[in-house]
Write a structure and sequence with these properties.
Oligomer: single chain
Strand content: 25-35%
Number of domains: 2
Number of helices: 7
Radius of gyration: 25 Å
Number of strands: 10
Largest sheet: 5 strands, antiparallel
Shape: elongated
Length: 276
């Protein structure tokens, strides 16, 4: 059994230090496989076998939830370097080689993440975007009335497009101001910060490229979601939540709070996905 386990394909969940590596009460991982630790001179990888052996594991909701549960279980009482779902290595020897080759990087990450959690804040912000056909002026081109009286259809079209670009610029400015106000509200309560912007969602969002009917260049209201990720010391989590409550009461923008989570967003993509 031991030889089979050493040779099996292994799914890697996270990396932690040996001093913190006493495993929690027995837990099961993806596909109900046992989770265990592989130690290489004080640096440990948390893994479970993939049976039958596989070079990849197909992601689905139960597997992803089981994966995240393992990472969160270890993260409760130790610093972990979390991996993204899908890092598979060919046996314990390969895992130890990866730990050895990237020891310096992994230890640096563990030092930076020590005692930290990830808190997420989502901002839902109104946005105005252009739904353009590219076919020239349409029946709504001069809807803003900005073109001079008697102007040609081409001039009216250009004036209307300029007005719509300005609406987008104002939306972008309001968006940047909202994000900055949010960051300022948590000043002194985090050690690192990341942000991501989702595509605009609106009444035409299901079309993917926000295409307008042929011959029109219209403006559509929508919503953009900004995901803000904060790396927060565990002893600052209570103060962070209180700052969020204060911010949410202002009601300037709809905001949502999540966490604490393992600090996935603060691990570089290659490490999080493949571990090497």
């Amino acid at each position: 059994m031991g030889q089979r386990r050493r040779c099996a394909s292994l799914l890697v969940y996270c990396v932690c230090a040996r001093a913190q590596a006493t495993p929690p009460a027995e837990i099961r991982g993806v596909d109900d496989q046992p989770v265990y630790l592989i130690d290489d001179d004080g640096l440990c990888a948390v893994v479970s076998p993939l049976l039958p052996p596989a070079v990849a594991v197909v992601p689905d909701v139960p597997r992803i939830l089981a994966f995240e549960k393992v990472v969160e279980t270890f993260h409760r009482d130790r610093t972990v370097l979390p991996f993204r779902f899908g890092c598979v290595m060919d046996g314990e020897i390969r895992v130890r080689e990866a730990l050895r080759v990237r020891r310096g990087e992994y230890q640096a990450f563990l030092g930076r993440l020590n005692g930290c959690v990830e808190m997420g804040v989502r901002l839902l912000m109104p946005w105005t975007y252009r739904a353009t056909s590219g076919d020239g002026p349409g029946p709504d081109s001069a809807a803003d009335g900005a073109a001079p009286a008697g102007a040609s259809p081409g001039i009216r079209y250009l004036h209307a497009r300029r007005a719509r670009f300005r609406k987008e610029e104002r939306s972008a400015l309001r968006e940047a101001e909202s994000i900055e106000r949010c960051r300022t509200a948590f000043a002194g309560l985090y050690v690192d910060f990341r942000s991501e912007l989702s595509p605009v969602r609106g009444s035409r969002s299901s079309e993917g490229d926000h295409a307008a009917p042929r011959g029109q260049d219209s403006v559509e209201p929508g919503v953009r979601m900004a995901s803000l990720m904060f790396l927060v010391k565990k002893d600052q989590e209570k103060a962070f939540r209180e700052a969020f409550r204060v911010l949410s009461r202002k009601g300037e923008t709809k905001i949502l709070l999540s966490g604490p989570w393992p600090p996935y967003s603060f691990v570089l993509g290659n490490e999080a996905k493949s571990g090497g």
